[in-house]
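Most newcomers find our protein records easier to grasp once they have seen one. Sequence and backbone structure share a record, each on its own labelled line. To make this concrete, we reproduce a full record directly below:
***
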Amino acid sequence: MNFKKGDKVVVISGKSKGTVGTITHVMRDTNKVIVEGANMVKKHIKPNGQTAGSIVEVEAPIHASNVMMVDTKTNKRTRIGHTTDKKGNKVRVSKKSNEQLN
């Protein structure tokens, strides 16, 4: 998987299509990510001794194939490539602007 926590992505399919947000959690075993503000679902909270029961909205996981990176230079979605830097380390690069991603 090419995504890391903190990456700025756009949702490309599903009910949250077009939503731009940052990745808050990456689940590598299931190949899913949680994007801030996208794929919102209602969750019922059971009452306990201190708080009353309620219904809250939380972000649900999205499959990694349904999100794309946002290029920092052009602010458009882009694919991710890999290359090596001068020190020989493997780095991620934007396919549109050929700029290194942090």
